[in-house]
Design a protein that fits this description.
The chain has helices spanning about 35-45, 65-75, 110-125, 140-150; strands spanning about 15, 20-25, 25-30, 75-80, 85-90, 95-105, 130-135, 155-160, 170-175. By secondary structure, the protein is of the alpha+beta class.
Length: about 180
């Protein structure tokens, strides 16, 4: 399957009321030195989950090599230098999966997550995919609420290996203009 090359976003900057102007999202590639900053951003942004979720976050297994692999087999996009927000995008046959959506604490509530979800919808459309999908830990109800405000709806629950009850909520959103939206 041939994948569409990423197109630069139309706007050169994103304006955030509290954070001021930010650079537009940019795709990172395996050799990008910014990947170290993305790893640090994810670790800082996901630290609040420690002790709240079981099993512990997969971010503990992330490494620079894992981010480089994500760049090769999916996409990583970041906003800001150093990154104030990032998201992993992984195409599947039936959806574009969003993972590791992270926003630095100083930039939360400024629209950066919403900008990355909008970018994900643009990328999904370019790849011919009609649905955005993500998973949020069952305990993180504030994340469920935030994603619902961005148009996602709960479509299921899953359990990590070895767990009898659900540990994650699956949420989906149709890509604007796709058949899934109609």
């Amino acid at each position: 399957m041939t994948r569409a090359r990423p197109q630069p976003p139309a706007a050169a900057r994103i304006s955030s009321p509290r954070a001021g102007p930010m650079t537009a999202p940019r795709r990172l590639f395996p050799g990008d030195p910014c990947l170290r900053d993305v790893l640090d951003l994810i670790r800082r942004s996901f630290a609040f989950m420690e002790g709240r979720i079981d099993p512990p976050s997969s971010m503990h297994r992330l490494s620079l090599a894992a981010l480089q692999e994500q760049c090769r087999h999916g996409e990583i996009w970041a906003i800001g230098t150093p990154p104030a927000a990032c998201v992993f995008l992984t195409p599947h046959p039936d959806c574009l999966y969003l993972g590791k959506l992270a926003v630095d604490g100083n930039h939360r509530g400024t629209g950066l997550a919403r900008a990355l979800v909008k970018l994900a919808a643009t990328r999904a459309a370019a790849l011919g995919l009609q649905v955005l999908r993500l998973q949020a830990r069952i305990e993180l109800t504030e994340n469920h609420t935030a994603f619902a405000r961005m148009g996602f709806r709960k479509t299921g629950e899953t359990a990590h290996t070895g767990f009898a009850k659900p540990t994650s909520v699956t949420m989906e959103r149709a890509v604007p203009g796709s058949r899934a939206q109609n």
